[in-house]
Write a structure and sequence with these properties.
This protein is mainly alpha-helical. The protein has five helices and two strands. It has a single domain, classed as Cytochrome Bc1 Complex, Chain D, domain 2 (Orthogonal Bundle). The chain is 50% helix and 11% strand. Strands 1-2 form a two-stranded antiparallel ribbon. It is globular and about 60 Å long.
């Protein structure tokens, strides 16, 4: 009896190595974009990566200063990875893996593609 359970476990384990992923890379990227490490990309980069205003304030001399997250839809995977790893400006460092960055990149590209197809 003990051996049959071992064989069954081994078959299930091997079978799971060849099965499809639970979620697609697009879905994984969407999940990460909406909430990587507890802080969403959306407030700074918009719901589609188009960029968004973060804050606006007036200096003492009356000059209005706008702090905005950039449009990342046309950025390359390499540019996105560098930004995430280095955290330029006010960009927080999320400590995302290369796989997670690639999934977010795939998500943004696919959203852009779908948007253009629907026009």
């Amino acid at each position: 009896m003990k051996r049959s359970w071992s064989v069954l476990f081994l078959c299930v384990a091997i079978g799971s190595l060849h099965s499809e992923d639970f979620i697609s890379e697009f879905e994984y990227g969407q999940m990460l974009y909406q909430n990587p490490r507890g802080v969403s990309c959306i407030p700074c980069h918009g719901d589609r990566g188009q960029g968004a205003e973060i804050a606006r304030y007036r200096k003492r001399d009356g000059t209005v200063v706008e702090l905005a997250g950039p449009d990342i839809r046309q950025s390359t995977l390499k540019q996105n990875a560098e930004a995430v790893h280095k955290g330029p400006g006010v960009m927080p460092r999320y400590f995302l893996t290369d796989e997670e960055i690639r999934a977010i990149y795939t998500y943004i590209r696919e959203v852009e593609k779908r948007e253009k197809e629907s026009e």
